[in-house]
Design goal:
Blueprint: E1 2-7, E2 16-21, E3 30-39, H1 42-49, E4 60-61, E5 65-73, E6 85-88, E7 103-107, E8 111-113, H2 120-124, H3 127-140, E9 148-152, H4 157-169, E10 172-177, H5 183-188, E11 193-196, H6 202-210, E12 215-220, H7 227-232, E13 234-242, H8 255-261, E14 264-267, H9 271-274, H10 277-293, E15 300-305, H11 309-318, E16 324-328
Parallel strand pairs: 9-10, 9-12, 10-11, 12-13, 13-14, 15-16
Antiparallel strand pairs: 1-2, 1-4, 3-5, 3-7, 3-16, 5-6, 6-8
Helix pairs in contact: 3-4, 3-10
Amino acid sequence: MARVVRFHEHGGPDVLRIEDINIPKPDRGEVRIHVKALGLNRAEALLRSGNYIETPAFPSRLGLEAAGIVETVGEGVRDIVPGDAVSIVPPVSMVRWPAYGELVTFPAAFVVKHPPSFSWETAAAMWMQYLTAYGALIDIAKLHRNDFVVVTAASSSVGLAAIQIANMVGATPIAVTRTSVKKNALLSHGAAHVIASAEENLESRLKEITGPDGVRVVLDPVGGRIFEPLTAAMSRGGILIEYGGLSPDPTPFPLFAVLSKVLTLRGYLVHEIIGDPARLEAAKAFILDGLMSGALKPVIAKTFPFDQIVEAHRFLESNEQFGKIVVTV
């Protein structure tokens, strides 16, 4: 028996329950892990509230990221043994392989041994944010030195990861946040420029910063009205990658900007990287190299104990965090 987090109906954070259930032994190709820390993601709040791409059967579990110690392995598992310190690459289905629990089972393909120098909090906080940012900026947009890249929702864990990756390859990250409250923090965490979209004219500020070169790459999880000023400031042949839809407003299609500048507007899910073994291996190598060199370093907004998972989800939905929320087990 082990304690896990489940919910029996859709709703707010209060529907989450910590319950004791039996965790079966790992099947062939699977690994069972004693969890030490969890990384929280907005997708988990969406699943809980009934707004995610998966439809759970109740009672449902949840969670995409964890780190811990291997307890036992199933048949056919090689290179991973009991006692290894590991972290979990987010699976395609968190309903099938949930991470919120004291003891969890995952396919060995999603289990990564990590250097002992990594803390449990760091190990639990790295894969979703860096895989998402890497897949968009490096794998798809081919971000390179001297590019201007706009990162909206910049104080989120993915936003901060994108800023770090941009600096790692020599690009210039422009952070977009709603107000100037987080401006100094974003500058201190690597943003070359910060624009407060509720206080400044986004289009004119972007054109002022980038000059005739314009913005080649935009990474946006917001949508809505921001599309028009973003595309107006983009360079010919630029690419806007949309990986969310946080805005409640309709998203206009900026037809004339797209036509006149030959822009690419592309939807993106991190599952593209996770579901392709070759692309995933390239991503893991890039991220681990960056973490070992210090170019990449997860920013932890706040840490909660496992018993406070409801409070952790309330904080997740408050939009007050700067970086990643971690739960220790």
